[in-house]
Amino acid sequence: QVQLVESGGGLVQAGGSLRLSCAASERTFSRYAMGWFRQAPGKEREFLAVIWSGGSTDYSDSVKGRFTISRDNAKITVYLQMNSLKPEDTAVYYCAADPTATMKYQYWGQGTQVTVSS
Prior knowledge:
Helix content is 0%, strand content 50%. With 118 residues, it is an all-beta fold.
């Protein structure tokens, strides 16, 4: 059972930046695809980005060019660098682990709140 703990959320002004971290509990993390998602009040959960075990990445159109996903396998941590933040980026952000690299995320963190003020 992989445990994931997000951190780094908070309140930021529009145009600002935040870096979210997601620490995993097991070193098998390095073999997993890791994703970031968010959910705003009253909206469905939205996929943002994935980083595969080999290091390649994919992004949703809504964050491409503004957000960057990365991983440090030595620290068993995945990051989401968020730049040029907009009020519509306000949401709870979650990381998730996909052990089979099939976009079926089996393990989820508890989430971290990001609030972007205008």
